[in-house]
Design goal:
about 60 residues; mainly alpha
């Protein structure tokens, strides 16, 4: 197996910074305000009602195993 190239690491970091990081708070929880915006935006684009809330969609408390 070969080591990951530095270029792939840069692409992964850019993807994370653009698409993943903005929807989480600094403590690793889902940002419910960002989730609400995303849900309502996608629902509007699809022309359907936003039938779910961010708080109902994103897990905000740890679950047991």
């Amino acid at each position: 197996m070969t080591a990951a190239s530095p270029r792939k690491g840069l692409h992964a970091r850019a993807h994370y910074e653009k698409f993943i990081a903005p929807i989480f708070t600094t403590d690793g929880q889902a940002d419910l305000a960002a989730g609400t915006t995303a849900i309502t935006t996608v629902a509007a684009e699809l022309g359907v009602p936003a039938a779910v809330t961010a708080a109902g969609f994103y897990r905000t408390a740890p679950t047991g195993s």
